[in-house]
User: Fold these one by one.
Assistant:
Number 1:
Amino acid sequence: MTIRTQVIPDSGVKTAVPALEPLLVEIHEEGRAGRHVRGGEEADALIPAAFARKAPLGLPELSEPQVVRHFTHLAQLNYAVDTGMYPLGSCTMKYNPKINDRVASLFADLHPKQPQSTVQGALTLLAELEGMLAKLTGMDAVTLQPAAGAQAEFTAILMFKAYHQKRGEGAKRHRVIVPDTAHGTNPASAAMCGFQVTTVKSDPHGNIDLASLKAALGDDVVGLMLTNPNTLGLFEERLREVCDAVHAVGGLVYGDGANMNALLGVARPGDLGFDCIHINVHKTFSTPHGAGGPGAGPLCVKEPLRAFLPKPWIVRDEQGRYHLDTARDDQPPAGLGDSIGRVRTFLGNFGVLVRAYTYMRTLGEEGLAEASNDAILAANYLLAQLREHYDVAFDRACMHEFVLSASRQKKQGVSALDVAKALIDEGFHPPTVYFPLVVPEALMIEPTETEPRETLDAFAAAMIRIAERAKTDPASVKASPVHAPLARLDEVTAARNPKLKWQRPT
Amino acid sequence: MNKNPYSSHTDADRAAMLERVGIKSVDDLLTAIPKDALRPKLGLPVGMSELEIQAHLESLAAKNRTAGAGPFFLGGPVQRRYIPAAVPVLALRGEFLTAYTPYQPEVSQGTLQSIFEYQSLISELLAMDVANSSMYEGGSAVAEAAFMAVRITGRRKVVIAGEVYFEFRRTVRTYAKGPDLEIVEVPTRDLVAAADGAACLIVQHPDAFGGLVDVRAIADAAHAAGALCIEVTEPHANALLEPPGALGADIAVGEGQPLGIPMSFGGPYLGILACRAALVRQMPGRIVGETHDARGMRGFVNTLQTREQHIRREKATSNICTNEAIAAITAAVYLALMGPEGLRAAARLGVAKAHALAHRLGALPGCSVSTDGDFFDRFALRVPRLAPGREGSGYAMRNALLVDNVLVEGTSMHYGDRDDLIIQCTEMTTEAEMDALVAAIESIAASLRETVSAR
């Protein structure tokens, strides 16, 4: 099986160096500008000379047919969920339903500063989404502002800071604990809040090591940031003891919800000891990942943290109308109360949240539970097929993803990266590699519930073929990919001699 | 039958998979979960068919008044702009939309080259050395720019002009609570005097009232005091106004939504962040760079990653991971289609309409344009007092106009005690809308005069 990329016809354009597709600036010709908008010349006399642009405006001039072919060709160079299985661990690359995109466009022509009486439909949707997320996670209150999981982490740690300050313990609490399996965003978010990070190791079963955690705890601890199931795809076996230990020293437990796709209708983080959890709706609730974003990272919290949530809040009056509870310039800081304030300009990534709402209402309670069930089953089904061909980091039942190690292949001269590149030639997007950091030569595989069984079987067969080739012909694995649009790229040169924008041809 | 309509599994598939795993049910895999917490009843609604969900969302959408449904003058960082038909057709193709961060460059050149082109186009537009691949949106981009200045200067005082958008200033204040930065808000005219000991001076041009600002003087003062100058800018303004890079700004930030992205009630948007070359290693976010593959073909990769959280963890320049890539690709497609002339035309039309409208409104009894000095494509209007109290003029007028289905911003105590209207024009603003606004303000003011004279 080879990756199917359309052959792009030679455009006839001479590029500066051999290239798949010219840059816009290489197909520019003066006078080719389109006619999408025209007029307004009288404006030039209205702008004082001191302010008028004198710097050249070096945007390329192109015809619409050129632009359409250019970006269509570029799109064809991408691998995507719409083109094939994308088992990127911790990213939940499930199918993105098209109805979600269509209904989002019903709300495209709404300005965020519109009077509340003119956006009751949008506010109703947001309020209902908050309610559904609270029920799903077993939490009491929700903010929809964060644009992504990392911004939700930052929001929550700011709230933890405010919570401790309110209790008069702000000065002494300055450490955030993260396990060694944590996403890099966790320590980075804690550091943005001015806190020190203490890393705790994992135990031989792939859990956070309880003894080490207890040794690290003290009354200077802000809280613990914990992903569950963790990034090894394993449910923390002593989760309640972990949460109790943190609470015993007055700390709070943050749930990183990147792996929530394992828990829909299976268990609620609010019942397990977490004080809050974020949801990556671009993972769990099927909103498209957008080549890197946007996502949305709603943050769901327990009652004691409610007062610290970012404002404005969406509040419902007795007549069933929705209002925004906001603060103004004449009310600093009293108008905010205990709220940390807004973490973005407006209410949230609304277009993404509409898609998540639509997904949740489409599946309903039973459909969501089935999705998690199937995701767990698919991961264990793949693990069962691959277990004897690769080392398994921690060999117990996984949740919705699992981590293999290419350590055995490494001894044959084939690294996790080589396995990943060989998968490209087999027609699959590679899994996440070299993460979590605690597993050498890690391959983190998350099939999701939407891949047909035939595709799972084909992926397993490809992985097994690569393991065989590592034994018999490691050089061929190391030479991959050969069927992708490009061979391996020179990342060292890119970093050493950064070329971060085009040079206009002279 | 499947309860999840997007599942491909039949019951036979599931039975075969369970058998391969060697279990009877998925619950056999869930022994680590406390029994009392397993499989809770959630109380969520039952599922819907695609036809039913479409109708349900249409019924929610019907409760909104869309921008195009009547006279509309809201704006600021988010603007109603013309979006060429080809923009969503290209940018929302499944190959872009359903991919993720280009971790595997060999099969992600579409994303990577598009973002490289976005960085190039934004650098041209702002006359800056380098742009990153996107921030979440305008307000948090301003905050991250301030963090960047704090890292570079080692100082902790952030000075921000009061004529920067209220929502941006508030976002900066929230972010500043993380590292406990000192935030000083002063009017733009007092920025220069506040430069001493500052990490940065943050100025917006055109400002929240559309006012044109002498950014060069502020940048000079910042540099003389060892501080950075951060300019909050707007994409279309740069087609006609001297860009940040030519005015001495060290970092340029702004909301990129006007570049072909729908208003969509608050997001998703595009945070623009660009800087001088010397500062690039302190930049937050992802950056795409040019390189070549093993066969010598040009290619693109995420680069300078040693700034980022997945490598540096708590020492990273930012925690940002998922960004707004599809919005950056959208902006690249928009700029490619519009070209320099299209962008200039869109900007000029907003300017021309705003000035024509200001001329008419400023001539109404009791009304005057209240932007200080020259303005761009929006302006502040002082209106007669309609009610007692601190919001009796602009905000009361905004409410009275709403009754007439005319949408205009009232400053609503977001800019000190200023109580005016803010009126934004773009290429989408029609003569009919302008006539309606003038007539409505005239009639509201006239009825007020009648009430007063009747007393």
Number 2:
Amino acid sequence: MILGGIDIVVLIATLMAASTPVLLAATGELVAEKAGVLNLGVEGMMIMGAVGGFAAAVATGSPVLGFLGGALAGAAMALIFAFLTQVLLSNQVATGLALTLFGLGLSALIGKGFEGVRPPPTPKLPFGPLAEIPVAGRILFSHDWMVYASLALVAATWWFLRHSRAGLILRAVGENHDAAHALGYRVVAVRVTALAFGGALAGLGGAYLSLVRVPQWTEGMTAGAGWIALAIVVFASWRPERVLLGAYLFGGITAIQLQMQAAGYKIPVHLLTMAPYVVTIVALVLITALHRRGAQAAPAALGRSFHAST
Amino acid sequence: MNRRSFLTTTAATALLAAATTLPAFAQDPLKVGFIYVGPVGDMGWSYQHDLGRKAVEAAYGDRVVTSYVESVPEGPDAERVLTQMALEGNKLIFATSFGFMDAVMNVAAKFPDVKFEHATGYKRADNVATYDARFYEGRAVLGTIAGHMTKSNKIGYIGSFPIPEVVQGINSSFIHARKVNPDVEMKVVWAYTWFDPAKEADAAAALIAEGVDVILQHTDSTAPQAKAQEAGIYSFGQASDMGSFAPAPRISSIIDNWDPYYVKRVGMMLDGTWESSATWGGIGDGEVVIGEITEAVPAEVKAEAEALRDKIASGEYHPFTGPLNKQDGSAWLAEGQVATDEELSGLNFYVEGITAELPK
């Protein structure tokens, strides 16, 4: 299916893979922020996931263990953050920024031995005849398993936050930690768990970058993807389904603008280059404005420290 | 710690302090600073500059002390880093990216006795020199190989920013690919970054989706090489050899070799003969090196490419030799006429035959 010189099917298939790292990181951050913690260290957790996942995959020869390693590296970073902000009650903004700088530096150090090494390939899932269906087959059944896992994680997060009791507790902690504490919920434990989950997802996103999307390890390879994820959470007004929309919109427009350039469209490249940012923000802000609940969307206790004595 | 060792260390410290506070007796090492736009581990542009820094250390030993700051964004941050370096006592500072230009000029005005060297720029002052390499010479050789190797007759080029240096490279590759293959088309994608592996990979994927089967890149990471390998097409190493992708997809490379220039300039600084200048070295000066052409390339193509390289090195042939028209069809260079350095350093148009539009 070719529209205006661009193969739409290839485009959609590309954008799903290209958006996966940001989607994973944003979903993880969403859970952490829903629990009332602002972790600005997404970039640092992602890059640690990228190097950790890469190292694990190269050492074991298994991409599955690689992703596991990436998730663990991300979660470990998040637990450092959790210890500093939840136990020692440090400032969340400053600690998050420090976590990013720490992650970038540490990953560069760990990754020194992995430059120029190639990771084991992550195979596409074999769907057999399903992948042969015109259009839908290429779009839906031509990916590696992490793409499906990321979509499943978004769905699970949505269900968890909206329909499960544990999700309700998590949101209560994020909205009013004093009330949640008075009801007997363990605020710090909930937050540490949410942070670890967020870190694991950021780590998975980073590992996807170094194992599938690029695929190789290069110092500083996340190049700001973590910040995009943070922005998408805010503009998606803390809703998983909108995070999915935002991440795919951003990834999609990034992919389409490069393809439009390659196809020789006579549109100024500057406009094309800024399009992903502008379109994603405008679309998500419009959705929020139409629903008229944007103002109250942020968890009320976001970024506030909690101690049982106060 | 016993008393004796305490005394010896104290004595040593005192001696050391005396030595450092009396510069008249021992010559202070010259402090040389470098700032890089990417990480030294990019295996491309910044990596090559750092090799140059190491060559300086190797050449002058303890007469110099070098330091570097990597991953400095082009913008206000560069000015801060440069100021910091000047305050730390660096007497010669190499700023190794085009976008550092205005920052260098501003800081150089504040530190008249610190010498600055700015790579690929065009603004100079009494204490600011510029240096660049004639990458377009190497691109001519790569373009020749690319023209022979493409089967779809579509060559892809990943551009960083539409500045003269990159435009020269696109034009030179295209001219020489066309020379050996009149059906060749050039697809250009601008990544608007020097270093972003994910974006470079996406740009390569977009080109591959357009049917390109040879990719040249003017961005610094090896991500496009990995994509080319996945797609089973050819690519060229950029800035550094990127030899880990040989023999295919990487079939050759254009290597920036800053060692001779850095060693020479630091030497002039040590002799006190440094002065502001504009250096533009090419294949003949050893600043641009063509990496090994692998066995994936047929022997006669390899021989042709190497002959072109040698002709450029000896000065017998200039890659921008007429007749050449501009993209809009108007005449640029007449038969046998050669582009001047001035024209090239302000090059802001494509040559005839490239269909893409150059961003302004």
